[in-house]
């Protein structure tokens, strides 16, 4: 290989010693021992590209490149912006922490952030609690029709996101399905105004929006659960409830974590649902961020809010993951 | 049987769709008995064991344990514990926690629980592995954890589905002795599934030999070996020479036949009824045939030619071609006198015990 290459391409066979002007002919005898020689940058790059690691990097470089461009790029722009300031339409690129001070200390943003976290964590748990039995049922009793069941579950999600939110407006609204229904039944005499335009409406709507995304990872982890473990637990004396708590639940914790994260992380940043069904009490941090990037035209503050939210959500998510991992050790 | 029945299997059928996995099984297993289910792969051993444990229901018929019908009683309420063929070790628990799993519910107290777990770990030689996680074990280690996990419960009935199949020879033999010892000591009823004939022969009080979802014979090991009921049973347990015969006749408790190349022989029916002598078959175990060495005399004598020779260490197996017999006769001889040196193709003289012939239903 080596000698073949050097005859074909003299550049590969000739190695400089590192001293300019002094060029040595490499011994072309393949049996001769290869002496350690200083290599040029070019030689070592081509060597690296032929190595196992080099080939690996080469193979993943196109996707790596666009992943960098598409994922890291925007984040860099946001992070950079968050340290700048804006005066009407001009961006001042001198470093400042003023945006973060505002984002983290001004009561309005703090409240919005806390509310957003509360809503997203609640939505995530509500969604998982509602989705788990469905996933469990499909996995354990779906039989031959598992595929069909999953298909049916995803059907509502073929309609647009806005459509689903608006249909909740129809259900929860002042003259909505729920109110008129309850009035017909005589449960209430005049429509309840507490159904919509508040935090609860946001939670209900979001939980419904994300249900399918929670069901799928839960279903997958339940499918992976070895049924003979449940038989063994039954054999050792556990009834259905204990079997669930001691075997099914701990072994599906990865699915639960995945479902929680899949729901929680995007819901923090949702601004359409709070806008449509949240009213004034249901405003979330993403609405504030949107305003900064839009009408208020303060990109740096918007960016600082976004970055702060991102970091705090990551911390909360990490805490939840650790707590669930601890729970897994407790359930024996 | 001397003891009272522990498990009664009455006319049990099991169908999976249109496939009949078990066909009208009947058996009674005594209290404290070591009962083995022996048979080739796919004959329904696991299926039967799972029905005793409550993991499957019979399609018809019933199973009684301790005199109580088990219909509709889930596994957790049955006085049985099972060692699963697939081990089913809990991956999220370590070895000690796996073993303690069933004890937790009994609320024995910490000291007693730990003592029992340690005892069980010692019994299966895993004392060092207590803290190792369930998903970090080798096949044989898993199997031993599964065994310990069931043993520690001290159930009335222990169902073992090939509990030693993944162990090396030495450890397996040691475990066999250990299990047998334990079973005698605490008087548990054992139902052992195996397809290792020596395991079944050496450990069991009685053996049920199964083929294709049916029980072919239930008897004590010696009886099964010496007096197999059917050709299949004989073939499955140890080697058997099936002989070409003519003029097979049954007379009272005896039978007689002419074996081409061997001569006229007689034998005992040993309690069997041969309904159709035309379909019966005569056999002799390889170890009941012996080589007659140069200079020795014997009566009767049969001559033949060595067609093949296989060396097994302490013994050698010879395939001998005898004029008039359709199949080679297999002889197993110890190597003390040089059976391992007999050249293939040489002439050989053999003799047999006159009472060694068995008649079987074909
Ligand atoms: N759930 C099932 N559905 C359909 N057929 C099954 C099912 N379980 C077992 N069988 C069939 O029933 C027959 C008996 O199976 P079983 O597992 O009892 O065999 P086995 O005697 O334990 O064999 P092995 O020694 O290989 O473990 C097999 O032919 C098997 O394919
Ligand atoms: Mg089996």
TrEMBL record, chain A:
Domain of life: Bacteria
Coiled-coil regions listed: none
PROSITE patterns named among the record's database cross-references: ABC_TM1
InterPro entries with a match to the protein in the record: MetI-like, MetI-like_sf
UniProt topology in membrane: Multi-pass membrane protein
Keywords, alphabetical: Cell membrane, Membrane, Transmembrane, Transmembrane helix, Transport
The protein's name: ABC transporter permease subunit
